[in-house]
Amino acid sequence: MPFTLIWLALRLPPATLQKLGLFFAGFATLHIAGILAVSRVPLEAWQQTRLYDGIVLSFEHRAVARELDAYRKDWVLAMDGYSNAVTLGYNLRQYVAVFGEASSHARHDDLVTDFRALDGRNFLVLRKSQPNPDDYRRYFRGVTVDSFEIRGARFWRVKGEGFDYAAYREGVLAGVRRKYYAVPSWLPQRACYMCDRYFPGEACHR
Fold it and tell me: What's the confidence (pLDDT) of residue 41?
């Protein structure tokens, strides 16, 4: 897009460029006015929308941080989705992992988090939706769940003690590998950080 605009700027007459400049200035002004208007609306105005818990996570991050302070030093902080994890991590100035399969976006976390090194650690998985503890019990020695509320938005803390990497490898990582990293058998394969890390000696071919 920038190169297209440069190409046009070099070829259009000055009068046309002036009109385009005015158009884009007005277009930007509308966006700025809209952002300023939205920023003046109380958070509770969004409470009936499905975006509300995400809005609270983003803008009430100090209150969220207070609820996590007791765990930040010795526990591995995680969330069940990539966008939530990076939002929380940015606000905490601390990396937050993605626990579970999540979506294709969470594959960036595969580059960063090495679950082998976390074997035996305690995890705190922050969620915006009520969890089923049974979904976590197979991966930890013990699991407890509690919740807290900030400005009408409820968040859940899944506290897993004694992470079982071997169970997680079979229960989550194997499925992630099949779903997102399976290279078609007719393509050559040189290396794959996911397979090389968690499934050494096993090709990622379908």
Answer: 77
53-83 tens-digit pLDDT: 898 999 899 999 999 999 999 999 999 999 9
Looking at the DSSP bridge assignments, the partners of residue 78 are 97, 125
The pLDDT value recorded for residue 44 is: 80
Q: What is the largest CA-CA distance in the chain?
A: 72
**Nearest-5° Cα angle at 158, 152 to 163:** 160
SS (H, E, C) 117-137: HHCCCCEEEEECCCCCCHHHH
Backbone angles phi, psi at 195, to 5 degrees: -70, -40
Percent of the chain's residues with pLDDT above 70: 99
DSSP letters along 145-201, please? EEEEEETTEEEEEEEEEEE-HHHHIIIIIHHHHHHHS-B-TTS-----HHHHHHSTT
Confidence of residue 99 (pLDDT cuts 50, 70, 90): very high
Question: Distance (Å, rounded) from C-alpha 134 to C-alpha 143?
Answer: 9
Is residue 31 packed enough to be buried (19+ CB in 10 Å), middle (13-18) or exposed (0-12)?
A: exposed
Task: Calculate the alpha carbon distances from 154 to 112, 128, 132 in Å.
Answer: 29, 7, 15
Q: Which two three-digit tokens encode residue 62?
A: 């100090």
How far, in Å, CA of 159 to CA of 142, rounded? 8
The residue among 89, 85, 88 whose CA lies nearest residue 100 is: 85
